[in-house]
Amino acid sequence: MQTYKITSITDVTDRVRQFDLLVADNTPLPAHDPGAHLDFQIPNVGERSYSLIDWPGNTDTFTIAVQREDDGDGGSQAMHGLTVGDTLKASGPINDFKLNEGDTPRLLIAGGIGVTPIISFATQLAARNAPFQFHVAARSAGICPFRETLETTFGPHLTFWFDDTNQIDLQTLIASATPETHIFCCGPKGMIEAVRERAESAGFAKDQIHFELFTSPATHVGDTPFEVEIADSGQVFTIPADKTIIEVLEAEGVDVMYDCARGDCGICQTDVISGTPDHRDVVLSDAERASGKVMQICVSRAKSARLVLDL
Ligand code: FES
């Protein structure tokens, strides 16, 4: 765990704010690869992950961007309340979203604030003269984070798609990619699911499709508590509305394996013995979801009063 101090803050759009960070004791910044993130400990909120943005030549500071979610759980609002000179503890950099080896063509697709790790990929690919296309989708031009900087920096590789003028056509984009292309997508759940579906039906192998959710869909306003029974031990735990299964089990000393805690890596997948999961991941196929036999316990919840899990 490292303490970082905020050295500058820039408003990128009405809701997106950029933070530049240095290690508080002025020791060198830890090394990282494109796609890495820091896990910040936000007082009174908990852990939140933000991707490091590597613009060309930006090696002296860590840069993150935070979109304020007014109906969120308070993490982004707390971040927006910080001022220059404030400090934050964070672990990492951690990288669950890496560029593949070699110089295959890459199709980079970003939705909204999901552009942050994709910028780092584009910076590295452009520096290597590797072939890539960079597609950025947003609801409208006015709320597209970093629009002008993206244009100036990645112009020839870049295409903008705005829902109110020219909505992104994932079907055509993916269908026109060559078979050896690796596809990288970061954005909201619906976009990731659409990219995965279209890429798989266009014949791309699973290991050519890389994705990362930019927000955790773990808890929503209106969620209610439910029970989890551990099949092995018979222990029963109540999962409150504002906690995930993993958070509760870990706090109770149950050994659980997980990594991303966002529902996009698949590590925490658990067999369901009985009960009905409320799936919130982007890992499972439609058939797996419909079966109700497996779930990602880092984000998914229950539609039934109790889940019995094979743990
Ligand atoms: S820990 Fe990654 S999907 Fe649950």
The level 1 CATH classification of the largest domain is Alpha Beta
Computed structural class: alpha/beta
Number of strands: 18
CATH topology of the largest domain: Rossmann fold
Q: Note poorly predicted spans.
A: none
- CATH homologous group name of the largest domain: Nucleotide-binding domain of ferredoxin-NADP reductase (FNR) module
In words, what does this structure look like?
- There is one protein chain.
- With 311 residues, the protein is an alpha/beta fold.
- The chain folds into three domains: 2-94, Translation factors (Elongation Factor Tu (Ef-tu), domain 3), CATH 2.40.30; 106-213, Rossmann fold; 226-309, Ubiquitin-like (UB roll).
- The chain contains seven helices and 18 strands.
- It has helices at residues 75-80, 115-127, 147-154, 170-175, 189-201, 245-251, 286-291; strands spanning 2-11, 16-23, 37-42, 46-51, 62-67, 87-94, 106-111, 132-138, 158-162, 182-187, 209-213, 226-230, 236-239, 269-274, 277-278, 294-296, 301-302, 306-309.
- The strands form four sheets. A six-stranded antiparallel sheet has the order 4-3-6-1-2-5. The chain has a five-stranded parallel sheet with strand order 9-8-7-10-11, sandwiched between helices.
- Strand 12 (226-230) and strand 13 (236-239) form a beta hairpin.
- The longest helix has 13 residues, at 115-127.
- The chain is globular, with a radius of gyration of 20 Å.
- The mean pLDDT is 92.
- The structure holds FE2/S2 (inorganic) cluster.
- The site of FE2/S2 (inorganic) cluster has 14 residues, from loops.
